[in-house]
Structure prediction request, 205 residues.
Amino acid sequence: MLGACATALPPRPVDRARAPRVGDTWRYAYRSAWKQDPPRWVDYAVVSVTEEGIGDRLTLDGAASPWEDRLFGSGFALVPRPFPGLVVHDFSPYLEAFGPLVPGTFAVAMPPEQFGTAWWGTARVLGVEQVITAAGSFAATRVQIDGTRPFVSGMDDAADPVRIFAAAWYAPAVKRIVKFDFLTQARRLNPLIRDHYELASYRVG
Prediction:
């Protein structure tokens, strides 16, 4: 069973030597597998660094608004951040700020679903890979995310997601994720969301 051997990651304080600083920024190129969803720029800036976590501000395409602020702690969590025309999915982007990632399988805090059953998921910390992006080449730790929820009567087997497959690559030099792939799948196995985020530029202190 998915998650049967997963352990909860205990809370950890921010390691100031590893953490980003207020004002650090990252820009990602977003693209979808579906032609009706145009490419976008996804921009982040750190707005707070406390013992509890890293706070950032997310904006799109270089515009100052709309924006969304979020605090990320030391645990594994999948976080949807809705904007007009796009839901940006983040996965605990600042985990390296709380200490090195260690191999293992861990429980993931999953987002609530508006309809149907609840999600549960796991994250597997794998080895280091060399990842090439528009912002450069980085040694990055790969984390594989798997999510599932039961299909029940009333759900649409072609339109309601029941599986999530995602992968995130963490690079200490960047102090954030450098690449993120996100896929959702219906019971019929047809993909619903197939998104890709790749680091385009960054500025860290």
In short: The two ends are 43 Å apart (CA to CA). The mean pLDDT is 94. The longest strand covers residues 120-133. DSSP finds no helices and twelve strands in the chain.
